[in-house]
Amino acid sequence: MTAGAEPPPPVIRSFAPIADTRCRALILGSMPGVASLREGRYYAHPRNAFWPIMTELLQLDPKAGYEERFHGLLRRGIALWDVAAQCRRPGSADAAIRECRPNDIPGLTKKCPELRHIYFNGRAAQQLFFRFMPADLVENAGIGTHRLPSTSPAYPLAFEDKLDAWRAILRGLKM
């Protein structure tokens, strides 16, 4: 490091996947934001639309605690993880992700033999996935991919429009 230069941000690590062998859909984010890392749970920022969307789509109890909500995902066949296992990133902006190492998504797909759909929570998750994952991962397994609008409060789309786009998950689960 040169004199006067700021040190790089610390390495941050994502969480373990929320998944089991019954999962038919996988929602992938990029890397948990600052609020989520601080709380140790997915989508902890109070203005992130992820849990309100899932509550509406899956008819979960809006007052349910975190564990009850993620068990609600599993009961409906939905897994949750991030593309990045670790990276350096100041703040929460996906554009600031550097030195990224991916999670073992190929390994997860093998543990979830019923997996048929991967949904990306925003463009950054999709870009990281296709940057790091083997090209044949989804093709050979018959897994479809679909980018959804980011649930981040930084993504300027009305909640109702995000909710409507995320209904694709319900359509995918019916297939």
Describe the overall structure.
With 175 residues, this protein is α/β, with parallel strands linked by helices. It has a single domain, classed as Uracil-DNA glycosylase-like domain (Uracil-DNA Glycosylase, subunit E, 3-Layer(aba) Sandwich). It is built from 8 helices and 7 strands; from the N terminus they run E-E-H-H-H-E-E-E-H-E-H-H-E-H-H. The strands form 2 sheets. The chain has a 4-stranded parallel beta sheet. The longest helix is centred in the middle third of the chain and has 10 residues. The radius of gyration is 16 Å and the shape is globular. The model has no long low-confidence stretch (mean pLDDT 93).
Note the main sheet. 4 strands, parallel
Radius of gyration from the alpha-carbon trace, in angstroms: 16 Å
SS summary, helix count: 8
| Order of the strands making up the biggest sheet | 3-2-6-7
Domain count, please report it: 1
Low-pLDDT stretches: none
Order of helices and strands, N to C? EEHHHEEEHEHHEHH
Can you identify the CATH class?
A: Alpha Beta
List the helices and strands and how they pair.
Layout: E1 11-13, E2 25-29, H1 34-39, H2 50-58, H3 66-75, E3 78-82, E4 84-88, E5 98-102, H4 105-111, E6 117-121, H5 123-132, H6 136-141, E7 144-148, H7 159-166, H8 168-174
Parallel strand pairs: 2-3, 2-6, 6-7
Antiparallel strand pairs: 1-4, 4-5
Outline:
Helix content is 36%, strand content 19%. By secondary structure, it is α/β, with parallel strands linked by helices.
Key features of this structure:
175 residues; alpha/beta; Uracil-DNA Glycosylase, subunit E; four-stranded parallel sheet; three-stranded antiparallel sheet; 36% helix; globular
